[in-house]
Structures are given as C-alpha cells and as structure tokens.
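Changelog entry: the Exostosin GT47 domain-containing protein record was regenerated in this release. Current contents:
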Amino acid sequence: MRHYECLTNDSSLSSAVFVPFYAGFDARRFWGYNVKQRDELGEDLARWLKGRPEWRRMDGRDHFFVAGRVGRDFRRLSDQDSDWGNKLMRLPEFENMTMLSIETNSWSNEFAVPYPSYFHPKREIDVQRWQRQVRMNQRRYLYSFIGAPRPNLKESIRGEIINLTGKNPRITHQVNNFFISIASSSHQTLNFTKNAKESDEIGPKQPGEEEETGTIAHSSHQTLNLTENAKESDEIGPKQPEKEEETGTIASSSHQTLNLTENAKDSAEIGPKQLEEEEKTDTIAPSSHQTLNLNENAKERDEIRLKQPKEEETDTCAGRYVYMHNLPSIFNDDIIKNCRTLMKWFNMCPFMVNSGLGPQVLESDKATTRVLTPKTGSWYATNQFLLAVIFRERMKHYECLTNDSSLASAVYVPYYAGFDVGRYLWGYNVTVRDELAVKLARWLRERPEWNKMHGRDHFFVTGRIGWDFRRMFENDADWGSKLMTLPEISNMTMLAIETTAWTNEIAIPYPTYFHPKSLTEIQRWQRKVKKVKRRYLFSFVGGSRPQLDGSIRGEIINQCLASHGKCKFLDCKVSDCDNPVKIMEVFQESVFCLQPPGDSYTRRSIFDSILAGCIPVFFHPGSGYNQYIWYFPKNYTKFSVYIPEKEMKNGTVSLKKLLSRIDKERISRMRNEVVKIIPKIIYTKPGLVGPEKVNDAFDIAVDKILERVAMVKRMMEEGKDLESEYSQTRDLQKLSENHIK
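Regenerated structure tokens:
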C-alpha cells in the first residue's frame, strides 16, 4: 500500500480509507489469555478511529483493513474466556468496516483475498515465464496432498484422504483425470477473472507467519484514492497532488475494484495505426466538395485489429471483450456519403473529415495561440452530431475488440441512427423515417449473437437526443422515428448526448473541440485553464428562445446585458458560434458559465465550458445532474451552481448578486473539481497506450456498458424481472426538479 500509485495524505480526496492494523498478529499472541486482554487493542483502535475526522464522512463504511487469519478469529460471540478469538468484528465501529482476510465466514462485510504464495515477481514477463513452465512440467502424480491428519477434528476427512493415497501416492499417468480443490469457490470471489479458462492453482501453504515491522503506534491512518490516476508512481509514502494541477484522470470503475485480477498493468499490443500529429488534415475553411476520408474501406477497417487471447499470455481482456457487428454499409457509411442531405439547413460535409473530428484548427492568429494549444494538432472544429462516427473510430482501436463473438461480453452496433433520422425529420412520412430502423431490427434478430441475450448485451451510440427516437404514434406530424420502441431495439442500450428518462438510455458527453494524443497533453491543458485570468464573473453563449414557452433565456440575457461588465454575452444569432476559438475564449475568461435549457435540456456548451475550466451554472437537473451520471460527481455542489428554473421565471434571483456572494476559496475548490472532470468528458485520439493513455469519455462508456451487461446477465440467470433495466415506461421523475441526485 505504501507504493500504491494513488495513495494520498489528503483524506478529502480519498474514495476509501485503509487502516493498517495488524489484527491477525494482535489476535494470535493471546493464547491462554482472558477476553479482556484479547479485546483491548481492538477497542482502543475503535475509539481512535471514531475520533478521526475521516470517520464522520461515512461512519467507517469507507474503511477497510486486512488480516492474515480466518474471519472467525474475530467473531467471538460471548465474553467467556474459554471461547475462541476476539470480538473485533462485533464492535459497532468495525461492523461498519470491511475486512479482507484469507477466509471469510459469510458476513457481508468480509471478503476473502488469496493466501500469500512463495512467488513475488517484479514484472509481468516473470509471471508469464512461470506460467509457461508450469504448463510444460511433466507431472508424475495424478493427485497429491500436502498436510497432516486432524484426528482431533471430528468431521475432518484428511485421514481418509491420506489412507487413499497410501504411503506412496503415485497412482497413474492418466491425463484426463485431475484433482481440484473446491475450497476457493465460496471465498475468493473478488480475485478471479470472469473467464478463468485455467483452473486457479490453489497454491502451496503459505510460509510461516513472517516477522512484520511496525506497530500500531506508527499507524498513520493512511488513506487512498481509488478514482484518481496519479501522474507518477510514488516512491514509498503517500501521494500529494501538486498544488499547481490536479489531473483528475480516472480509471474506470469496473477496474478499480480491489483485488480484481483483470486489472492489468500492461495493455496488449493494439496494432492499429494511430492518428499522427503530422497526418493530413483539412482547414476550417468550408468547402462544397470536401471528400470524406473515413469510409472508403469500411468493412475492412471495422476489422483493423481484433484481439484474440494467446494461450501463453495472461488474458487482460477477460470480461472486457467487445464484438463490433460488421453491418451492411446502408446502416452507416452509405448514410454519410450523402453528407449534404444529413440536415435540412446545414451542410455537414466540412465536418466529416479527419475520421469525424472535423477540420483541424490551425495556428492562424494570436487569438488562436492565446486561447488554445494549436501546435499540438489536437484541436478540431468538431460537430456534436458526429459522435457516432467518432465513437466507431475509437472502437476500431479498442484494445479488447474481438471478431470472436463467443468471447464478447458486449456487442457494439455501429449504426448511425442520428444521421439516419436527421435527414428525414422535416417533410417525410413515418414510413420513410422508420424504414432503415426496421431493417436493422430484422438484421440483428437473425444474427447468432442475438440469441445469447436477445439483444440485452447490444448497444449503439448516437449524436442526437433520445427524444428523436421515441415517436409513440404513426402520425406524420409527430416527431422522430420509432427506433427505440421497436421490440428488438428496446432490448438494447442507447448511448446518446441526452436521454429521456427511459432506463435503457444512458447519456454520454457531447464531443468537444479537444482531442489530445496523450495524458501529458491533457495535464498541460489543465494547468493552463487553472491559471488563466478570468475577466467576467459569468457568461452566456447562445441565443434567446422566444418561441419556447417558459424559456428563461430571455431573462438570462437581460440580466447579463444589465450587469455593468460582469457578464459576457456571445449572441449566436449574430456571432460565429461554430468557431472554437471564439467559444473557448469566452469560457476561459469567465468564472461561471450559464447553461439554461434550450431546444432540449442539455447543451454541448456544458462540456465546452468545463473544458475551459469554467464552473457551470445549471437551472434544471435534466441538464446535467440526472443525465451524465457516469461522468459527473454525485455531489453536484462540488463542481457547479444550481439555480431552480422557477426562480428565474418569477424574477426572484439576481444572477450577479447570487454569484458574487460565492467566496474566492469556494470558487477555487469548485474550479479544481471542474478541471478534474476534463479527462472524463473528452474523446482522445485513437490508439493511446501505456502511461500516456487516459480513461476518457469513450473508455468510461465502454466500461460502464460492460458493467451493465454483466449485471443484466446476473439478473437473467437469477430469474429476476428485467423491467427495471429495459422498461418501456418513462420515469418523468428523473427529470424533475425534485429529483436531484
């Protein structure tokens, strides 16, 4: 733990608290002693912990300790001296904590971790060499037993086992029979990969209890942060974030679980071509005949690199494999070839270049250099509707992509649903709008992958809001397609830029303008936006919505214009709001960025402002808190300001006065939280590996999908009702002002 990369001595940052109490040694030394002596140190520790500020946060439920003894040694039920063990785990404080021990007794706050073996390698390659050696070893015995009889234990079977083996346990060389201990099956649940194709050898007896240094007097109540990726691995001692930056790069939650063997240090070789800094790009100047550079050999490109586990290496992708359907081109590439027809009043062709990232922002003037970091080649005029194209390109480079669907834990469907419906939203009948969706449902249903979970392990991505796919009736005047109401698609999960409160819709971030190539580049940007001088107290980038009843944008604009220079208003009716430099300049110069609902609850501006280190101000929970649950902190007050929409409507709130009352110290804390979110809400360029890789919006989405599918699979195996995850009933409460999580 002293070498854990995310150890911190700032307990406010920590997601868990490790208590380095040597409970096993404390219990072991008191053979023949009364219960008072056996319990003394445990009670002292409980008292000490309860007095710590870290305890008050969750009353110890985020605390854990490790013991090299079995759980029953700490579960004495009475205070008789003749009873075994101490009562550590029955103390009220310790009942709230989690114990990791070599054997549990089925209490829900105990988890078994492996006994230590004799082998403590330094590198992954040492492990692989050892694995090859033990696979190739010639084995003289059919089975073996190392141990002694237990005649004093009435139910022990050891004597019978020893009698069966005899003095010479050499039996036969039959290779089809084998002996496996089942002792692990009920305990080591936290430590085995889901697809353990090899039996985990139950290792030799652990060595005698070796001397360990340190006493409780030196216990410093170390804390650790399971969600923060440290920039550098520490030498011995806790890690303290640098004052000048907070990287905020988070590892995916599905791989943060303690002791999971699928948490691999080294990525497997990926193999696909990375987007290089010097690659050919297009400028932001619009062109009526720009060629698309992403679709020509789509079917081959969908199989650029497909990982297959090699028998001789540790499978770091166990439980993480994704299979990508090689869809007929009518469902994706053919749609965007006609890029002029994708939106009625907007030419999407200029934004299709660079694999959907759009034209690169070049170092054209001083403003660009001052506002962005154009020399990195990581800034693009990215359009929000291109999310599906960007996601598909990233999936082609996903380290655990496989063309063997039997290995896959999830199935990705690269259907451009948003572009499909977008071209038919105005002036077309429902038959035309639904045609391709109905064909896709039929195609998927006939695939062998469908039969495994009837589509509940399938997902797709769209750069439009969920409402565009939820038409309830067959009236041509009604909006959108009926994609998500089709029986097949309703079994799938949709990742969209905004959801409509159905349980199989999950919101993921709008794409921003920044698509970096490395963790170092992200950290450099984070330092820049933390230090930038902000001229305006608050700002609003957008336009009024006079045609929308109940819109508060008009009131916001009026207050901004009357703020005597405290607010910056960039009117998108008269300004170029597709210019990344102009947008990012306003957000960088603002302390707070106003994010009122527009045509829908959410805005791309939310993510552009966070990227600029600007604290978002929300007026409706459906704009952020109840949408991006995989990405935003649960405690929304840490990174944002919430002003109920109704208070703006009735004129009881002065934005200038309210925001001016927030002190500088709190603003600094909030900005730090905003900056920490940045790595989670951007889409990096494909192909990042090793120490420069960052878990970005794509990685988090894939990991969370894998978690979701695993949960649904368990529910199916247990015969549970799946209505909670694939309900066709809309939970409007999720988008109400009374439902802020």
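The radius of gyration is 29 Å.
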